[in-house]
Specification:
The chain contains five helices and three strands; from the N terminus they run αβααββαα. By secondary structure, it is mostly helical. The chain folds into two domains: 81 residues, no CATH class; 40 residues, no CATH class. Helix 1 packs across helix 2.
């Protein structure tokens, strides 16, 4: 059985990669996660299987400031994105996922912030919102 520490080790590897390259998001094949967890927990470990294995990895990544979208079980084509929660992309995703009373204003502000960016790949939140 895969332990919490093993999921945290994989989450740390993923977070370290995104942090090293200052990435707001990165697309992964679910099979990449399976290979990573197998390298730390043994050949029988995987995150794409039944049970709460994908939820364990998602929770470990969330503790490190990242979310997975779509959820691993919902990845019909076998691909998911790991997204930095404090990035504009993360904020945009949350604005669509969690609609509230001020949701339209929040969404408009995020879209305006994206529109003002100099480069299309400049999607990490500015220093005032949590620079890395």
């Amino acid at each position: 059985m895969t332990t919490r520490d093993q999921y945290m080790k994989v989450a740390r590897q993923i977070a370290d990669h995104l942090n090293a390259f200052h990435l707001a998001f990165k697309t992964y094949q679910v099979s990449d996660f399976d290979a990573m967890i197998k390298s730390v927990a043994g050949e029988s470990a995987r995150v794409s299987g039944k049970g709460d294995t994908s939820e364990q990895l998602s929770a470990a990544l969330l503790e490190r400031g990242f979310t997975i979208f779509p959820a691993i079980p919902d990845a019909e084509d076998g691909y998911v994105r790991v997204i930095r929660t404090n990035s504009l992309v993360g904020s945009l995703l949350n604005a669509f996922r969690y609609v509230g009373s001020g949701g339209d204003t929040e969404l408009a502000n995020i879209l305006n912030a994206i529109k003002r960016r100099n480069r299309a790949d400049d999607l990490v939140a500015p220093a005032s919102e949590g620079d890395i």
